[in-house]
């Protein structure tokens, strides 16, 4: 057999074995529906919709680039740390599929029906809603492109109740970028009311937290576009005492909504119970020395500033949880979150076991302030007295990494812990129970 004939046969075999190019209908549409259209929908916060073939084809290169760089979907938990029950990261095979589809010219394939079937609007609610808390009146963001605003919501129950499920229904999905609900204990309510009264109009401006001593404030839950309604682990719940308040912090981004279409009246949906088997708490975790004494220096010009801290929380668990959990006893960790501001670059939460081993809870290799969420573990993590709960944060305070305010890039300056937009934080957030 001649070399020419042999080469021709190899070409035929390769052609026969080559996989056909992926198509929108068979391969890409299911991925977009599962991971993208909760934001990329008409009227959503994303800058363009991806609910039809024509829309996806027009954005094929942007889609391929965004998923290859892991900017989208905005799931910041890194690989190789632990397993999460809500993992939205695309697999390596899925990334390759998107790249091959874009490189092939974004073929449509054969529609499942004669005409394009529109993707139904993203619907997300709790299986049972016992209470809704809404902004008392519509609010129109005053600052552009980002407005961080806090609203004080009344808690009218006259008896103890437990929150067992949490969800947010954005009033205007084009501008609501993320929401955090903070639980304000009765003894700190007046401080919060003073913040509200000091600023005209509904609510007050806030950024890193609800204001005041943020290190001692608990969360009821958080939401970002694409988040699912959350029922907390079975048998657990967050106690709310009579006389408490809820502060709803809303991050508004106005780039996707023209002036005149930015009014919002977001609401929170809650599932409630009178009793639970295990009392739970969403526990902020950070060095008191950083928050109280501002001993978290981030010098101007430094491209990689690192601060780490660890402690056994069972020593002070009663204080940290407003007496919901007791000192000296182990607890369960079900989920973890992470919080920095605009100079943050990466961070890590882990358990340093008493036997010398380490267990990663959350590794964020590419921090992005605009995509905050909690990450729920596939399996609960037990924490025992003698273990240490550790947090590490990195920041880039170089001249090249400064945020832009009012169209002007800020000059690098020394930064420390603080509530303001130009300050920083290093905070872990854990859902724990007895």
Model description:
The protein is of the alpha+beta class. The protein folds into three domains: 18-103, no CATH class; 123-276, Jelly Rolls (Sandwich), CATH 2.60.120.310; 278-434, Jelly Rolls. 17% of the residues lie in helices and 30% in strands. β18 and β19 (408-409) form a beta hairpin.
Percent helix range: 10-25%
Percentage of residues in strands = 25-35%
Structural class: alpha+beta
The number of distinct structural domains comes to 3
Topology, number of strands: 20
- What's the gyration radius in Å? 24 Å
CA(first)-CA(last) distance: 76 Å
Main pleated sheet: 9 strands, mixed
Number of DSSP helical runs: 8
CATH architecture of the largest domain: Sandwich
The overall average pLDDT, rounded, is 87
Topology as a string of helices (H) and strands (E): HHHHHEEEEHEEEEEEEHEHEEEEEEEE
The third-level CATH topology of the largest domain is Jelly Rolls
Poorly predicted runs: 4-17, 114-122
The CATH class of the largest domain turns out to be Mainly Beta
What best-fitting shape do the alpha-carbon axes yield?
A: globular
Structure at a glance:
This protein is about 15% helix and about 30% strand. It is of the alpha+beta class and about 425 residues long. It has three domains: about 90 residues, no CATH class; about 150 residues, Copper type II, ascorbate-dependent monooxygenase, N-terminal domain (Jelly Rolls, Sandwich); about 160 residues, Jelly Rolls (Sandwich), CATH 2.60.120.
Index terms:
single chain, alpha+beta, Jelly Rolls, 3 domains, 9-stranded mixed sheet, 5-stranded antiparallel sheet, 8 helices, 30% strand
């Amino acid at each position: 057999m001649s070399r020419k004939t042999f080469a021709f046969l190899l070409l035929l075999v390769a052609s026969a074995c080559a996989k056909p190019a992926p198509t929108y209908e068979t391969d890409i549409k299911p991925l977009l529906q599962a991971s993208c259209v909760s934001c990329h929908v008409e009227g959503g916060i994303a800058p363009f919709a991806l609910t039809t073939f024509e829309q996806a084809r027009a954005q094929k290169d942007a889609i391929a680039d965004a998923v290859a760089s892991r900017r989208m979907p905005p799931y910041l938990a890194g690989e190789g740390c632990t397993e999460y029950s809500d993992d939205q990261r695309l697999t390596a095979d899925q990334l390759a599929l998107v790249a091959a589809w874009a490189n092939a010219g974004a073929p449509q394939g054969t529609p499942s029906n004669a005409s394009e079937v529109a993707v139904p609007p993203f619907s997300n609610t709790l299986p049972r809603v016992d209470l809704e808390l809404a902004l008392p009146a519509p609010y129109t963001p005053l600052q552009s492109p980002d407005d961080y605003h806090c609203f004080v919501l009344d808690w009218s129950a006259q008896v103890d109740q437990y929150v067992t499920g949490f969800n947010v229904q954005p009033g205007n999905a084009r501008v609501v970028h993320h929401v955090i609900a903070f639980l304000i204990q009765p003894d700190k309510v007046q401080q919060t009311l003073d913040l509200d009264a000091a600023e005209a109009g509904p609510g007050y401006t806030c950024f890193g937290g609800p204001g005041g001593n943020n290190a001692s404030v608990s969360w009821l839950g958080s939401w970002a576009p694409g988040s699912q309604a959350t029922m907390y682990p079975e048998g657990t719940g967050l106690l709310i005492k009579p006389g408490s308040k809820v502060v709803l912090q809303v991050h508004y981004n106005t780039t996707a909504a023209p002036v005149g279409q930015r009014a919002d009246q977001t609401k929170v949906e809650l599932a409630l119970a009178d009793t639970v088997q295990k009392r739970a708490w969403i526990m902020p975790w950070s060095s008191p020395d950083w928050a109280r004494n501002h001993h978290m220096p981030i010098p101007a010009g430094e491209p990689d500033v690192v601060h780490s801290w660890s402690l056994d929380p069972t020593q002070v668990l009663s204080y940290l949880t407003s007496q919901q959990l007791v000192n000296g006893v182990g607890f369960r960790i079900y989920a973890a979150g992470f919080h920095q501001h605009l100079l943050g670059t990466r961070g890590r939460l882990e358990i340093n076991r008493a036997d010398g081993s380490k267990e990663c809870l959350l590794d964020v290799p590419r921090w992005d302030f605009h995509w905050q969420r909690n990450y729920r573990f596939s399996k609960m993590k037990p924490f025992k007295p003698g273990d240490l709960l550790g947090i590490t944060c990195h920041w880039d305070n170089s001249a090249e990494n400064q945020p832009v305010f009012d169209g002007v890039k800020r000059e690098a300056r020394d930064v420390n812990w603080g509530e303001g937009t130009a300050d920083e934080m290093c905070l872990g957030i854990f859902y724990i129970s007895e």
